[in-house]
Design goal:
This protein is of the alpha/beta class. The protein has 18 helices and 11 strands. Keywords: Hydrolase.
C-alpha cells in the first residue's frame, strides 16, 4: 500500500500519478484502507461502491488535474447515476439514472468517486446526527459534533480518508463543519457552481456547492474545474480574471479588512473564539494588512426571521413534492424537525415569503456598502468550538411537541409567541456568522487557524465581494504559508 498517502493534498497525489510514481489503483487501495481503519469510529461514510471505483480505473479516468485522486460525495443534491441518494432520511431512497452537472464536472477533473458521506436529513440542521445513519464523530474528539450539513465530508477530510470532499452550503454547511473539523472550506459566490439539472437555484439562491479540502490550492483548482455557466441557470456570473489556482500562487497584496465581532443572531460568542479572532487580526496586521473594526448595518432581530421564513417555505414545498412523488408513507418517516419546518412553511403566506426575501435584499445592500470600503470582512465562522452530540438536535420533549403540532396550520401563531425562536435558537445561534453569506450570495471561507484548549479546531471566516473568490484564495494561501493550518 502507498503508505505516504496522507502526506499529500489532492494535487500532490495527482502529480504522483502523472509522474508514474503511484497508480490510481494504489491511491484507491490507500483510501479504502484508511476508510476501513477510521470510518467505523467516526461514521463519516455511509455508502461505498469500491468495486465500481476499481472499474472506473480500468475503464480509464479522464485526464484532468485530479486524475486518480479518491473522492467522496455528500449524500445530498449530488446525483451519481446508479447510486442511492438518501439525503440523510429514513423516508426516501432515490436511485438516479443521471449525474448532476456538478458531478459530471467533478468526473471530468479526474477524481475517482467511491463513496457517499453522512448528512443530516435534507441538510436542515447544523449538526450531522441523523436518525437514519447515526451521528458522525469529530475526528479531533469522539462524541463531539462535526457540524453540518457537510459534516460527513468534513470528517472524511479531517480523518485523512480523502484530501478533498464534496459539500453544500445553505446556511453555513461547508464553512461550519470546516471550522469544527479543522479543514479549509470555501462557499463560492451565488451562481459560480452549477446546481442543475434538478435545480436552477435552491433555497432562493442561498445554496452553493463546492469542496472541503486540506489545502487552499486544491479548493481553488477544483473551482477552476467545476465553475462556469450552466444551460438554463438563473445566474451567469463573470469568470475570474485568471484562474483560481493562479490566485493562490500570486504574491499577496495588502488588504483592507473589516473586523466584525457582532453575531447576526442573538447568541453568546465563546471567549476562546473571540481570543482567536483577535489573534487572527493581529497576525494579519503583521502581514501588512489593515484591519479595522466595522459592522454591517443589519437588523439582528429581523435577520434570522427573514432567513427562517424563506427556508421553511422551501421545506414545505419540498415535503409536498415528495408526498406527491413517493406517497404519504415516505413523508411519515421524516424526522419531527423536518415535518415541523414544513408546517411552519405552509402557514406563511406568499406575501410573508416575499417580504422576507426583501429583507435578504437589505442584507445584500448592507454588505455591498461595507465591502465598498473594505476588500474582505473577517469574523468567527462559528460562535463556539464543537459541541458534544445531543446538544444541538431537538430534545425528545420538543420532538413530541413537533409531532403533535405539525398537522395543524398554526405556524404563524407559534412564530409570533416566540416558541419557534426558543426551539430553533440553539441551532440558529450557531449559524450567527454564516447565514449572512447565504442570504447575500457572497463568497466566504472558513480558514482553520486555531485550536481550543480542549483540542477542538476554531475556524475564522472571511467574506469577499460578489464574484471575488480570487482575493479570498490569495489571502487564504498567504495564511496557509505563514501561519499554517490546524488540519
Amino acid at each position: 500500500m502507498f503508505k505516504e498517502y496522507g502526506e499529500y493534498d489532492a494535487l500532490g497525489l495527482a502529480e504522483l500519478v502523472r509522474n508514474g510514481a503511484v497508480s490510481p489503483k494504489e491511491l484507491l487501495d490507500a483510501a479504502l484502507a484508511v476508510a476501513n481503519e477510521r470510518n467505523p469510529s467516526i461514521n463519516a461514510i455511509i455508502h461505498r461502491f469500491d468495486e465500481r471505483a476499481y472499474r472506473q480505473i480500468e475503464q480509464g479516468l479522464p485526464d484532468g488535474p485530479f486524475k486518480g485522486v479518491p473522492f467522496v460525495l455528500k449524500d445530498l443534491l449530488a446525483c451519481f447515476a446508479g447510486e442511492p441518494l438518501r439525503m440523510g432520511s429514513r423516508g426516501i431512497t432515490v436511485i438516479p439514472d443521471y449525474d448532476s452537472e456538478l458531478v459530471r464536472r467533478y468526473k471530468a477533473s479526474g477524481v475517482n468517486i467511491f463513496a457517499k458521506t453522512n448528512t443530516p436529513e435534507f441538510g436542515l440542521i447544523i449538526t450531522t446526527e441523523p436518525k437514519s445513519f447515526g451521528p458522525t464523530h469529530n475526528p479531533h474528539k469522539h462524541g463531539y459534533s462535526t457540524g453540518g450539513s457537510s459534516g460527513g465530508s468534513a470528517a472524511a477530510v479531517a480523518a485523512g480518508i480523502v484530501p478533498m470532499a464534496h459539500g453544500g452550503d445553505g446556511g453555513g454547511s461547508i464553512r461550519f463543519p470546516s471550522s469544527w473539523c479543522g479543514v479549509f472550506g470555501l462557499k463560492p459566490s451565488r451562481g459560480r457552481n452549477p446546481l442543475g439539472p434538478d435545480n436552477g437555484e435552491d433555497w432562493q439562491g442561498a445554496v452553493a456547492e463546492h469542496v472541503l479540502t486540506r489545502s487552499v490550492r486544491d479548493s481553488a483548482a477544483m473551482l477552476d474545474c467545476s465553475s462556469g455557466h450552466e444551460i438554463g441557470a438563473p445566474y451567469n456570473i463573470a469568470p475570474p480574471k485568471g484562474s483560481f489556482l493562479a490566485a493562490t500562487q500570486r504574491e499577496a497584496r495588502p488588504l483592507r479588512i473589516a473586523l466584525s465581532r457582532k453575531p447576526l443572531v442573538n447568541t453568546v460568542v465563546d471567549a476562546e473564539v473571540l481570543a482567536a479572532l483577535d489573534a487572527t487580526a493581529q497576525a494579519l496586521e503583521k502581514m501588512g494588512h489593515v484591519v479595522e473594526d466595522a459592522e454591517p448595518q443589519i437588523d439582528v432581530n429581523q435577520f434570522w426571521r427573514d432567513f427562517f421564513v424563506v427556508v421553511c417555505a422551501e421545506v414545505a414545498s419540498m415535503v409536498d413534492r415528495y408526498r406527491r412523488e413517493y406517497g404519504a408513507a415516505c413523508v411519515a418517516k421524516f424526522e419531527p424537525a423536518t415535518k415541523n419546518m414544513a408546517m411552519l412553511g405552509r402557514s406563511f403566506s406568499g406575501a410573508d415569503v416575499i417580504t422576507a426575501k426583501r429583507g435578504w435584499d437589505d442584507v445584500q445592500l448592507a454588505m455591498g456598502r461595507l465591502l465598498t470600503d473594505f476588500d474582505v470582512m473577517l469574523c468567527p465562522t462559528v460562535p463556539t468550538p464543537a459541541e458534544p452530540h445531543g446538544v444541538l438536535p431537538n430534545s425528545r420533549v420538543e420532538e413530541l411537541l413537533m409531532l403533535a403540532s405539525h398537522r395543524v396550520n398554526m405556524g404563524k401563531l407559534l412564530f409570533n409567541t416566540g416558541l419557534v425562536e426558543q426551539m430553533a435558537g440553539p441551532i440558529l445561534g450557531k449559524m450567527a456568522f454564516t447565514i449572512m453569506g447565504n442570504v447575500s450570495g457572497l463568497p466566504g471561507m472558513s480558514v482553520p487557524l486555531h485550536m481550543s484548549e480542549s483540542g477542538l479546531p476554531i475556524g475564522m471566516q472571511f467574506t469577499g465581494r460578489m464574484g471575488d473568490e480570487e482575493t479570498l484564495f490569495n489571502l487564504a494561501a498567504q495564511l496557509e504559508r505563514e501561519l499554517g493550518f490546524t488540519c
